[in-house]
Amino acid sequence: MAGIAARLGLRTPPRKAGLPPGPRGLAVAHLWHWLRRPIPWMEACARRYGDAFTIRLPWQGDVVFFSDPDAIKDIFTGPSDVLYAGEANVILEPILGTSSLLMLDGERHLRERRLLMPPLHGERMHAYGDVMREITERAMETWPSERAFPIHPEMQGITLDVIMRAVFGMEANDSEEVAKTVRLRALLVSLLAKATNPLLLLPPLQFDLGPLTPWGGLAAVMEEVDSLIFAQIAARRRARGDARPDVLSMLVGARDERGRPMTDAELRDEMMTMLLAGHETTATTLAWTFHRLTAHPEVRGRVVAEVDRVAGDGPLDPARVGELEYLDAFIRETLRLNPIIPIVGRKLQAPMRIGGLELDEGVMAAPCIYLTHRRPDVWPDPLRFDPDRFVGKKPSPYAWLPFGGGVRRCIGMAFALYELKVVLATVLSQFDVAPVRGERTKVVRRSITFAPSADMPIVLRRRR
């Protein structure tokens, strides 16, 4: 019975000494609040306990939330051999795999990050701009005008197709690739739909009793996705020397400082990480930007005017995305008030002083993105939506952190911000957006992300 209780989170070790205060109760009760009502619970804890408070979660133990930028700086600039992010992300391991960048720490993390960096930055990233615009234009051809429809699934379709083209290099117009592309895309849609259930991230529920059970159904889809991904990896290895521009081909040819290539397992896990982290989070951010556009007509007017000035009468030239300064500020302000991930975590491998607190080994230090972005001492009138906060200004990386920070900052940040601007500018060059009467958008949990409710319905009116 003791083993079962511990597995279910009904028994947890005694609270460690020196921790900041926090809500009472069993770890499973804290987990319920975290899964079912995370925002009001975080806000209530911050009001009662201040800048730092402790909660307890099954399989993680003591988790200290921090919202003070000075404390967050301690975490983001602290020693990487003490602050392990991989252990904090362990609930994602069954889906992403043990070789995912999100699971790695120490030298393995640094090696993998160096290999992944080149395809996702600089000129290589900008080469994907035409692909992003073309995929968006193709999707827009099917959109209705003058009636409500949910925009979030459309954004998921666009960002998934960007991943398929830019990362996997799968061309829908290549006759040899059509069947594989169609099948992989369908499987990925199914996988993402199943993976949005936050309960499937709980270790006791990750058991396979066949395809009709939640985890069994997810595992069956993952198995077929893996077979197709490994087939793509094998094809790239056979085609060494072909100058294919996709991320997978570049990673197959990459070598570390000792001349070692990435293994098939490492490539698979990084592909899955890019799919889940680079697809769902970007799509959800796009959905939140449409919410902000419909809620703030004066901001929408400025964004559209800038897009028209830069795009002119023709389609947007992705090379001019850098000129969209107000659109960039609009996206950053959206990410401030609607961060997709509410926290990031670091598991302490040794005692450490953070924010004036002496924390023991085994504690998880969690910079709280959501609460930090709403601090009135950092962001005056914090609930007011104001993109001008970011025009010509660079906020502190310890006060604006939607992509995390330090050596663990999201490696796809530049790619994501670029894609967000290309997609939004392409849509707004052809459509006006309006709210749906009577619709009240709320924040809902989709697995580890915070998404808009009802798939974010909007009304589009064609401009051109």
In short:
With 464 residues, this protein is of the alpha+beta class. It contains 17 helices and 12 strands. Strands 1-2-8-5-3 form a 5-stranded mixed β-sheet. It has a 3-stranded antiparallel β-sheet with strand order 4-12-9. It has a two-stranded antiparallel ribbon with strand order 6-7.
Labels describing this entry:
464 residues; alpha+beta; Cytochrome p450; three-stranded antiparallel sheet; 17 helices; 10% strand
Structural class from helices and strands?
A: alpha+beta
Tally the helices: what do you get? 17
How would you spell out the order of helices and strands?
HHHEEHEHHHHEHHHHHHHEEEEHHEEEE
Mean pLDDT metric? 90
- Report strand %: 5-15%
Oligomer: single chain
Straight-line distance between termini: 67 Å
Q: What is the CATH first-level class name? A: Mainly Alpha
The number of distinct β-strands equals 12
As laid out across the biggest beta sheet, the strand order is 1-2-8-5-3
Share in helix: 40-55%
- The CATH architecture comes to Orthogonal Bundle
Q: Please give the radius of gyration in angstroms.
A: 22 Å
| Total number of domains | 1
Largest sheet: 5 strands, mixed
Looking at CATH, the homologous superfamily is Cytochrome P450
CATH topology annotation: Cytochrome p450
